[in-house]
Design goal:
Length: 484
């Protein structure tokens, strides 16, 4: 049976097991038949969260965080930290406006929470320990329950001891479908990019490896994973359009990807569709960013003996020493099936009304990302010269519009993330982005200044912002907006 990524998980399972309940999805989600060979994406197949609720507008699941032995290196066992036993955790897929209920059980030896990265939900569902909820102790549980407000590509991860827990394998994809979206954009694959640090016996590297230098650089794992697998292969038909929903779940690695001789069309990012599509020849995702990409890979010009392309990771210079002496790496192979060339149907016109945030009367907010004097040999990073544990909250009124100026004062880039709200980037060092889009994470390069516009709504609470190099966040580069 061909993989069909479009149908809701409950329904998809119902195809194989006819009696399964939870098929809440009517036939309107149907997509044109796949143009790819049967099983084309089996090597990157994701486990699917199973909807336990017969109500078509409620998606209800159990999700357990637990240690699990995985074979990441052939023949070696890695005791990873997982959701439901796998890396990544199960794909949660529902429609905009649906209610999502997640019965979270923590079976880890340490406290944890789940943060729903990018979702504009109530503050008490945001998963930040001690501000939105108490941390869930080992053996404890917590019910998350909210309505999915926006279509797009999201992800979930813990917000407790984040660098260690995410780095050891706790993250999963969340797709919110828009039933009104044009059909036929391409054969879809949800692709979670990440890395994990393991030694040659498969044991997890310590989360504090390399001491202060490790923290400054941000720790990248030596195993580069695509949906939890090393260097998988997609079997594709030349000329047939694909749609990749990419998520960078690494705690520090930037994903800069090229497909030699091919171009991409970027149609969406953190907060759903772009105002209009953008042609690009490389994909760049900081930790936590997402991209919705179309491609029509072709084998034209390839020798008959090597009808494949390598999706190639190219080191991105995110500051001092981070790209030095590092080779390119093939992260996934696209193998063309012999003798078949498909012509992709014309792309539907994609345009989204995405009004510019009105900045008249907006409150200016200026912050700088700083490296603080070391206290007792411990490195501290921070905002405006103080680490998060000493920082005053930014008092903000419900509905307030703000213009943020974020200045990076030191030698490494920082992917700046705001919880619970999207923003619009105005400029990076004075240069405006090519297309308008909703972001929740933006790169602030070395010595650069990024300005963005944000409009807070009526969801009061403590909303966190931080660098999404999680080693930096844990070292103090975090702050809080107190919305009231
Ligand atoms: Cu992915 Cu605090 O966020
Ligand atoms: Cu977040
Ligand atoms: Cu940082």
């Amino acid at each position: 049976m061909p993989v069909n990524f479009f149908v809701r998980p409950g329904c998809w399972l119902a195809v194989g097991a006819l009696s399964l309940v939870g098929c809440g999805s009517p036939a309107t989600d149907e997509q044109p038949p796949s143009a790819q060979p049967a099983g084309w994406a089996d090597q990157i197949r994701l486990p699917l969260a199973v909807d336990l609720n017969p109500d078509p507008h409620i998606f209800e699941i159990n999700l357990e965080a637990r240690e699990s032995e995985l074979e990441l290196i052939p023949g070696k066992r890695t005791k990873a930290w997982t959701y439901d036993g796998g890396i990544p955790g199960p794909l949660i897929r529902a429609r905009v406006g649906d209610r999502l209920i997640v019965h979270f059980k923590n079976s880890l030896p340490e406290a944890s929470t789940i943060h729903w990265h990018g979702l504009r939900i109530a503050n008490d569902m945001d998963g930040v320990p001690d501000s939105s909820q108490p941390a869930v102790p080992p053996g404890g549980s917590f019910d998350y329950d909210f309505v999915l407000p926006d279509a797009g590509t999201y992800w979930y991860h813990p917000h407790f001891d984040s660098a260690a827990q995410v780095g050891d394998g706790l993250y999963g994809p969340l797709i919110v479908d828009d039933p009104a979206e044009p059909k036929g954009l391409g054969d879809e694959a949800v692709i979670v990019l990440s890395d994990i640090g393991v030694d040659q016996d498969g044991a997890l590297e310590p989360a504090d490896g390399g001491g202060n230098f490790g923290t400054l650089f941000g720790r990248e794992g030596n195993l580069h994973l695509v949906n939890g697998r090393v260097a998988p292969t997609l079997h594709v038909r030349s000329g047939a359009r694909q749609r990749w929903r990419l998520i960078n779940a690494s705690k520090a690695r930037y994903e800069q990807l090229v497909l030699p001789g091919q171009r991409f069309t970027r149609i969406g990012s953190d907060g759903g569709m772009l105002e209009s599509p953008e042609a690009i020849d490389r994909i760049l995702l900081t930790p936590a960013q997402r991209a919705d990409i179309l491609l029509e890979p072709t084998d034209a010009g390839l020798a008959a003996s090597e009808r494949s392309l390598s999706l190639t990771w190219v080191p991105y210079d995110r500051g001092f020493g981070t790209a030095y002496n590092r080779p390119n790496e093939s992260v996934m192979t696209l193998a063309f099936v012999a003798g078949a060339t498909a012509k992709a149907p014309p792309l539907p016109v994609l345009h989204r009304e995405l009004p510019r945030i009105d900045l008249s009367g907006a409150t200016p907010v200026a912050i700088s990302l700083t490296l603080n004097p070391e206290a007792d040999g411990e490195l501290a990073m921070g905002i405006n010269g103080v680490p998060s544990w000493q920082a005053a909250h930014l008092m903000t009124s419900l509905g307030e519009r703000q213009l943020w100026t974020v200045k990076n004062t030191f030698e490494w880039d920082h992917p700046f993330h705001m919880h619970g709200f999207f923003f619009q980037v105005i400029d990076v060092n004075g240069v405006a982005p090519a297309v308008r889009e909703w972001r929740d994470t933006v790169n602030v390069p070395v010595d650069a200044t990024v300005r963005f516009a944000i409009e807070f709504d009526a969801r009061p609470g403590m909303w966190m912002f931080h660098c999404h190099i999680l080693d930096h966040a844990d070292a103090g580069m975090m702050g809080m907006v107190h919305l009231h």
